[in-house]
Write a structure and sequence with these properties.
Oligomer: heterodimer
CATH class of chain A: Alpha Beta
Number of helices of chain B: 8
Structural class of chain B: alpha/beta
Order of helices and strands of chain A: HEHEEEEE
Mean pLDDT of chain B: 91
Shape of chain A: elongated
Strand order of the largest sheet of chain B: 5-4-6-3-7-8-9
CATH class of chain B: Alpha Beta
Strand content of chain B: 15-25%
Number of domains of chain B: 1
Number of strands of chain A: 6
Distance between the termini of chain A: 36 Å
CATH architecture of chain B: 3-Layer(aba) Sandwich
Low-confidence stretches of chain B: 10-19
CATH architecture of chain A: 2-Layer Sandwich
Radius of gyration of chain B: 20 Å
Number of helices of chain A: 2
Strand order of the largest sheet of chain A: 2-1-6
Strand content of chain A: 25-35%
CATH topology of chain B: Rossmann fold
Radius of gyration of chain A: 17 Å
Helix content of chain A: 25-40%
Shape of chain B: globular
Largest sheet of chain B: 7 strands, parallel
CATH topology of chain A: hypothetical protein PF0899 fold
Distance between the termini of chain B: 40 Å
Structural class of chain A: alpha+beta
Number of strands of chain B: 9
Number of domains of chain A: 1
Chain lengths: 114, 244
Amino acid sequence: MHELSIVMSIVDLATKEAAKHDAPLIEEIELDIGCLTGIEMDSFEFAWKQGVKRTILENALKKVNRIEGRAHCNDCNIDFKMQHLYDSCPECDNHLVGIISGKELKLKSLVLPD
Amino acid sequence: MCATCGCGPTSHHEHGYSHGDQEKKGKTIVDIEQDILGENNLLAARNRGFFEGRNILAINLVSSPGSGKTTLLERTLTDLKGELNFAVIEGDQQTANDADRIHATGTKVTQINTGKGCHLDAHMVLHAVQGMKLQADSVLFIENVGNLVCPAMFDLGEKERAVVISVTEGEDKPLKYPDMFHSSTLCIINKIDLLPYVKFDIEKAKEYARKVNPSLEIIELSCTSGEGMHLWYEWLKSKVLTPA
């Protein structure tokens, strides 16, 4: 259940950023969560409900951008969609591929009241 | 509050990012664009710098519970005593049982109890290391909490990550828990003395592991019979940089 640790990291980071603007609460939060990170979204949602209680994120609208996993095969010089870390190149079946996207775990932006 | 890194309930680590603020409909939109694990990664980088500066080879040992991490350490610490300098950080939710086992080999050990926590993080390791007076030119084993899922996302500042599986588990572990195998540099397949008694296809296990991580090194061994232990010791010694 590392998703709770992730939620608590988000709460810490967002709280710090909001404090710089003297914001008493956060209205909206936007996150990038790649499909190849080890985040289980059901667990994340569950952890979110618990983790934001009595924080300035308690009533915030949460927007999560799921970033598709994509990889590049050097041999074939093609990009392809990667659903699992063990997916191989669709052309040559090689597993030695570089991940281009899908590992994002980012706090994108906050909307604060004036 | 912690005097070294400023951690605590009210004050956390600062950072030097500036952001472009925009005004919109009476609200302020603040672009943050920061890694959620940024704080852990910063502390991990700090640990890594400390280890590199002192030529300490830090190895993060990860596995499911019961795959033999502690037994592997016990045997290694005993067999290589006098050849390499060791220290150990033990991570468990509860008890100091594993630390007691390591202590019995005469090795310096610190136990971290994570309570309900399912993994070690860089912050815990930072504080554990502060109390250890680690010697230069040594090997630090960090035995993570037994869990093949959660520790994968948390960099501790280690040089190598070794994932241990045993032949009493399913050979499809690498496919079921790909994140851990993807982020590891070495895979140890333990308890190979039991291969005649279990339905574990070791070739399949290796094939699956390499599907997830083609550059993963794999060592097969048994801590009980000693078979293959020399391969692990050779790997370990090859990673230790001899001081100039």
